[in-house]
Every structure is written in C-alpha cells, then in structure tokens.
Amino acid sequence: MQESIGTGAMGVVWRARDELLGRTVALKQLLIRPGLTDEQADRVRARAMREARISARIQHRNAVSMYDVVEHDGDPCLVMEHLASRSLSAVLTERGPLPPREVAGIGAQVAGALAAAHAVGVVHRDVKPGNILIGDNGSVKLTDFGISRAQDDGTVTHSGLSAGTPAYLAPEIAKGEEPGYPADVFSLGATLYHAVEGAPPFGTDANPLRLLHAVSSGKVTPPSRAGELSGALTKLLRVEPTERPSMAQTAALLETLPAETQVPVPAAWPVPPPAAAAAAPVAPAPAVGPSTMNFPAPAAPARPPRSGPNRRILVIAAVLLLVAAGVIAVLLTREKDAGTATAASTPSSAAAPPPPQTTSAQPTTTAPTPVAGKIDWAEAGRLVIAYYNSHSDQAKRWSMLSSRAQSQVGGQQAFISCTAQFTDVSARNAYGVTPNADGSVTVPVDVTHKTATGGSAEKRSLVVTRENGQLVIDADTGSAPCGIPPKSYG
C-alpha cells in the first residue's frame, strides 16, 4: 500500500500496487471499530462482501470496477479500479457552481452507470457529489456501493437513522419507505441541482431531523442558475416516484439538451416585440414543473381585452399593412420580370460568357463541416491528456493532430523543433467539455510546460474533432505554443 486516498464509515481506501498484474489499484481496507460485538462485526463484514458482490455485477465505463476481494487479518479487503481523480464534492468546493452544460455532461455519464446498475437489479441508495469521481483525464465514474441493495438480496443495511445522505434523499425515503429505482433518480437530480445551483435542493441544515422533515415535504426551491438544465431537473425532482423518468430515460434526457439556453415563456404571458425586448430585457422566469414539484408558479399578468375599439383599430391596421406588403411584392415581381424580358430580347450574334466572379466582391459564409459521429467527452479528454503527456514521443504527438492542424504548423520537423525547447510537458484536469456547432468539442485542460530555466502552468482549450474515424486535435482556441493553429468556435 502506498498512500491513503480516502476514509469512510467502513474503513480506509489506499492507493496500492498489484504486483502480480503490475497495475495501480484502490484497496478498501475494512476496519472493525473497537467495542462491537461479534454479531455486529460479522454484520460489517457481510456488508463489505455484499458491496463487493453488487459492484461486481455492474459493468459500465462510468462505474468503478470491482477487481477482487482479498483477506487481511480475517477481514475482507476490496480491490477496485483506481482513478486519478477528485470527487465532485471537492470540485464544487474549489470552483463553486458549475455551468449547466458541464453539469449535464457529468449527469449523463453517472445516469449511464446507474442505468446499468438498475438493469441488473441494483439500487445505489447514496448518489451524492462525494460518490462521483471526476478523473484527471476527464472521465466520470460512480463509486461506493457500500449501502446499495440488490432487489434479490434479502439482507437489510443497518446504518443508523436512514440509508443515504439526507440532503440528497428522495421524499419517499425521508417518509420511511424502502428505496427503489426512482429514489436514485431523485438523488441524482438533487446532486446535479447542487452542482449547478451551489447547494442541495433542500438546503444544508446541520440538524438531520429538521433536514429530513424538509426533504419529506418535497418543497424544492426553484433553480435560478440552471438555465437549459431546469426542465430536466424538474422531471428528476418530482415528488411522486411514478412521475420521474427511468434512469435510462434520464441519461437520454441529459444527453439531448438544447444547444442554447432558452427562457421558458408560459403561454399566458404576452411576448414583447423584438425592439422592446432588446430595450428592456426581462429576467428569466424559473422553470415550472408539475404541481407535485411544489414550485411556485409566477402570477400571469392581466391579458389585454378581447374586444373593444382599441382591438378593432389594431386589427384594421394589421390588415392594411398586409395589403400594402402584398402590393409592394407584386410591383417588385413585375419589375424583375420586365428586366428579365428586356435582357432576353436583346439581339446578340453570340452568347456572351458570364462575367468573372471575384471572391472579394461578395463575401460568403460557409457553414462548418459537420463532424461524422458523436464525440464521447471522456474520450476527448483522454486524447488531450495523452497529447501533452506524450512529450517524449513527438511522432506520436504529431499523429494526434488533424490534417488541417498539420498543414498549418510548417511540417513535422518544424513542429518537433519547436516542442524541443521544453524539457517536459504535462497536463491534468481535462474536464468541463463543451460542444461546438460543427460537432467537435472544446476541452479545457491545465498544462505545465517546463524548460531548462523554469516552467509555466496555464489553462488551455483544445478543439477535438473526428477525422477518418479517429479523434484528433484540430486547434487551440488561444495563442498556442509550437504552432497548433488557433481557431474560434462559437
């Protein structure tokens, strides 16, 4: 064992080395607290074994894998996949509320892992920021199935007042009901709410009983920062379990958010004309879900009268405007037809070639070429990390660039000569990926460049696209060293 990387109620997690297979693993060592009776100690050991069996059922790229169980001093030790990472809880402490699209990306990956768990009959029961790992390579993984319950498991967890963390519990669990699949959906919604709003939906009361009472009421404070994520949160945080989407539907919902944030406008609200909207922007209204969500609905302003002189005047004016527009359109059409007829009737001994076109006379706008195939954000993050961490293999780094990027750096030798000025290059924290209009993605990453005289650390953003079926680095959105061409994506 090399170092402690976490502690919990059941024991301590170590970063360890699997000497047989030559890999780094996470070793969860069970610690039996002094003072427990033999029966209580056996129950703790049984719980650890249950976690191992349940975790072994779940095979998904966004769930921490269970490798093996070994014994130490008569107690089980769980051997698990190791991921260089920080918990989402630590990320939120450092950065505060995250952008809605970043939160949606994290949520979609966690929902995928939970959907795989539900498919094999496992309820996690403790979905929260502390149990979501954000890898240095951009990957997202769900961990800690310590209090999970398989639907075919007859044992019951004895862990105190309730199963799970109160701030993220579903209302039905706070009322004493057994947790089912919809409870995980609510807990994921509460976790994403915290990530985008900065606090859990029921607050952070230090008194667990008072917090449980608030949870049982189901009265969620409407989100104010969630933007395009508000609608999804509304569905996940519905009070009635039967009204929540399944976890598979949740994953699909989070993967297909609209490209831009749009302020929801209830049908009863009058929509101002564009000029008025530009002159006096209206603050976005909170998304309103079903009545069971208990979000306060905004009061609808008084509607204009349906009849009367003012309405008749407006109708007449609108009709006159339409008639005038029609007359103008007819006149313009006739003028165009007349000009065409005159040109056609002009005698000519030979057909004159069309005048040459100049590119400077009429600039055109070309839409970006769509990227073939959806780009997995975690895979894009891993590519960016690998690009910087392969400094010792410049030929490999060169192969990671797109043909467009290679054509603009002056050739492979120029690229290698430039990068040779650095004695070492490394990168970490490739998460917070955002999609671009052409299907590529922009990956922010912390990069450290070292030279013989010192070093520098900075945040860079690389654009990853797909070329010939492979992910490649297409551009740097800023002023990049060693020739990766900058390119702006809106």
TrEMBL record:
Residues 342-351, 358-370 have a biased composition (Low complexity). One of its GO terms (molecular function) is protein serine/threonine kinase activity. SUPFAM superfamilies: Protein kinase-like (PK-like). Pfam families: Pkinase. This is non-specific serine/threonine protein kinase. Keywords: ATP-binding, Kinase, Membrane, Nucleotide-binding, Serine/threonine-protein kinase, Transferase, Transmembrane, Transmembrane helix. ATP binds at K28. Its EC number is 2.7.11.1. The chain crosses the membrane at residues 313-332. Residues 342-372 are annotated as: Disordered. It is an enzyme of class 2 (transferase). CDD domains: STKc_PknB_like (cd14014). PANTHER family: MITOGEN-ACTIVATED PROTEIN KINASE KINASE KINASE 20-RELATED (PTHR43289), SERINE_THREONINE-PROTEIN KINASE NEKL-3 (PTHR43289:SF6). Residues 1-257 form the Protein kinase domain.
